[in-house]
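Sample intake sheet
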Amino acid sequence: MSSPTAVPAYRRTNRALFFGGFSCFALLYCVQPLMPLLAHDFALTPAQSSLSLSMATAALAFSLLCSSVISDRVGRKNLMVVALVVAAAMTVLSAFARSYAELLVARTLLGLALGGMPAVAMAYLSEEIEPASLGVSMGLLISGNAFGGMLGRMLASTLSDFLSWRVALATMGVAGLLAAWEFWRSLPASRNFKPSSGGLAMTLHGLRRHFGDDGLPWLFALSFLLMGCFVSAYNFIGFRLLGAPYGLRQSVVGAISLLYLLGIFSSVWAGRRADRLGRRHVLWSVMGTMFAGLLLTMAHNLVLIVAGMAIFTFGFFASHSIASSWVGRRARTQQALASALYLCFYYLGSSVVGWLCGFLWEHGGWGGVVMLLGSLLAAALLISLRLRSLAPLMTDAQSANMAKPPKSTLSNPRPSAEPLA
């Protein structure tokens, strides 16, 4: 049974991490619908304009590992707050870029700053939330990501259509500052954090331990494939719908981001199903849904294209919610490092696959993009099927004992028993 004080703290934690996830994704991906405009204003190819996102995600992937080591020594909350504030400030500065090179510098600095948010947030939840409630809390964090991605794209697309992309970026930066304030105000201080003083030697030991695990390397590979496919699809669906035969307005194309509402639902829904049925039994099915949605986007009918993107989006956020919480369960020590590795591969996938799809778009159009993404998703589906045979780290009885948290642990007021994997 949860202590009375744990319930309000649990709710404050979920609210704060929702805002943090919102700001992280909104600031990172608000340039995605602006790529055709950047290509026009700066005389760029689609592959070059995609660097506005790929440079930020590559910097983020690099920064994640450094930030996880720092957070293991100095704590979680302050590092996350600084990350959100600096990222918001870089977004405001990018609105005043006089050249594409200056914009890329600001976006790269934004990515470096945001390294202090995603993996540290996952580690915070793994430490502060009891196992029986972790799936829901991680799902709410991913829902914040989905909401930020949706609203950031929609606002940026609409403002750029009626005003300019510079106004759009400045507005997103101000919104990010407000979200950082709410995050700082709501998030409780860590109760279960224990500083690490092992330095480089402990980090190397953690790397060997995580990559020697039977499941974690496959989850890292999965994150690369899933995020690479998801971001690439949204990168170039805008180019497809702005061109012939559809010729949609920029603001209408931006409205495609409303499909992220499905991600807000599916991440929490999948987290609850995983808590009840086990991750290995749910992950492969939601990934199959994502694959089916991608294939449906090959249709020429606009309604079917949107339906395919909807199914694709639902499957991605459900898959990411399950895989990310699974990392927290498998990594019994140095959880921030494990989360950072997962997200490092996650954002590397965004950078590498997104960049490659730029060339495929130039030479093969949407069919070329789907050919690459379909191949990568097929590989991801095979990995998810392999993970079905992954042995749990402990028995159900041990898991039930672990689910009884100390009084200081934040918990859901109505936790349920959770299969370990």
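Comment: The chain has 17 helices and no strands. The chain has one domain: 8-189+209-391.
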